[in-house]
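yo

u said u wanted the structure for the complex thing, so here. seqs first:
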Amino acid sequence: MHPAPSIIAFTVLSGLGLGLLAYLGAGLASPTGWAAFFWFGLGYGLTLAGLAASSFHLGHPERALKAFSQWRTSWLSREAVLATATLLCLAPHAAGLVFWGRPQPALGLIAAFLALQTVLATAMIYAQLRTVPRWNHWNTPTVFLLAALTGGALLLRAVPLAQLLLAMLALAMVAHWVIGDQRFAAEGITSESATGLGARGAVRLLEPPHTGPNYLLREMAHVVGRRHALKLRVIALVCGAILPSLALWAAPEALVAWLLALVLHVLGVLAQRWLFFAEAEHVMGLYYGLHST
Amino acid sequence: MTALPATTERKLGLVIDLDTCVGCHACVVACKGWNTENYGAPLSDSDAYGPEPVGSFLNRVHSYEVTPPQGAPQIVHFPKSCLHCENAPCVTVCPTGASYKRQEDGIVLVNEADCIGCGLCAWACPYGAREMDAAAGVMKKCTLCVDRIYNQNLPEEDREPACVRTCPAGARHFGDLGDPQSAVSLLVAARGGMDLMPEQGTKPVNKYLPPRPRDTLRAAPDNLAALCEPTTEGLGGFLGWLDRTLERL
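structre next:
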C-alpha cells in the first residue's frame, strides 16, 4: 500500500496524543494550573494535528462532517465519532484541573476509555480489510494500542510504566512482522484463484490492461518502499523501543535521557508506520502479476 | 446508508465469457465513452497526449497466459470491472454513506455528492474495481450503466450496459442473475460460471465463464503440405460444372 505521509502523520500523532490524554483522563498524572494547561494542550494539540493531517488525504475535506454518519458499519466513521467524543468528554476534566485545580475523575475515566477506543478504531480501519492479509490480524490493533500507550507514558515520564510498555511494544512489532510475512500465503489467494483459471494451469500476466500506471497501482501496489524493509525494521525496533529503554535505564532521572528516549521513540514509530503501509500487499496486485510465489 | 440490504429483489450483473473474449478492449473504450459524458463526474485523464498518460477507467482488460501441466499455453483475455458483490466490502467501510447497494436491483453505486474521497472503499475491494478520479476527487466505479438500462429515451436494444452493447465477440452478457430462469443464469449453469476470489467471501454477482477446453490434434497427417494444395473435389455450382465440363473435353 502507498505509505502516504498524511496517513502516517495521522496515525502516529493522534496515537501519541490519545495515549497521553488517556493517562491524563485516568489520573495517572494530575497537573494543575499552567502545568495542566501545557499537558492537556499537548494531548489535544497532537490529536487534533493528527486528525487535521488525515484530512489532507481526502479528495473533498470540506465534506468531512458527513463521515460522522455511518458509525453503525464503518470503522472510519467510528474513529471520527470516538475521537470527537473523547475530546469533548475530557474537556470538563481538563478545564477543572487548569482553572480550579479540581479533577472530574468520572468524566476523566470515561474519556480515557474513549481515547483507547479511538486508537482501537483507527487500527480497525486497517485490520478490518480482508484484502490486505498483513493487516487483517489481531496484532494490528495490538501494535497501534501499545504504540499509543508507550508514547503517552514516555511523554508523561512515567519511567517504570514506559519501560514495561517499551518491552511489550518491541515484542508486538516483531510479532507483527513475523506473522505478517506469512499472512498473504496463509490466505491462500493466488493468481489462479483470482482469475478462476487455476484448474487449467499456471497463470501468468502476459499483458497489463494499460502500458502506463494507474490509481490502483500507485495506491495499492506500492513496492518501492519495501526495498529497505529489513533496515527499516531494525531502525523501528532499535529506535522505537530498544534505545529509549536503554536511555531510561542508564539515566532514569536525567532530562536529556528522557528527551532522547522520546525523540527516538517517535522516530522509530514513524519508521514502523511507514513499513506498516509500504510492506502491506493488497490482493488486487495478483491481477497485475504481483505477489506471485 | 452503508449497511448492506439483506436481500435484493433482483441481482443485475454481467456474465463474461473468457472463451470468446478476443481482447480488443472495445468494452473499455465504450465504457469510458459513455461514463465520461453521462452520470457523475467525467472519467478524467492526465497527460493524455504526453509521455505519462494516466486516467480513470471503470473496466480494464488484462491478458493472461495459462500454462497447463501438459500441452501448449493458452492466452486468456480477462475483462474486469465491478462485480456488484452481494456482500460488498466497499459499501460497509464507507464513512459517509456515499457507497450503497440498491435494494431493488443490487447495483452498487457511489453518491458522488457525499463522497469525501478517502479511498477506503478502493482498499476494501479485492478486485481493484474502484478508482479515485484524480480531477474530481471522488470515487468512480461501474454503475452497470444505470443511466442506460432504465433509460426510456434510448431504443430498447440500447438499454444494456455500454460494454455489453459494444462487444463484437458477444463475450459479455447482461441480466438478472437472481432469476434462475434468466438467460444469463442458464448460461452460467450450462458453462460452469465461476466467482473470482471466492476466498474473500464477497459473493460476487458477476460471473465468469471459463474457456472451453481446446481440441487437440491426435496424429499428424503424413503429408501436411498436401492439405494446402487447391482442390476441386466436392466443388458445386457453376464453378463445379465448369470444372467437370472442361475435364471431359
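The longest strand of chain A covers residues 202-207. Chain A has a mean pLDDT of 93.
cya
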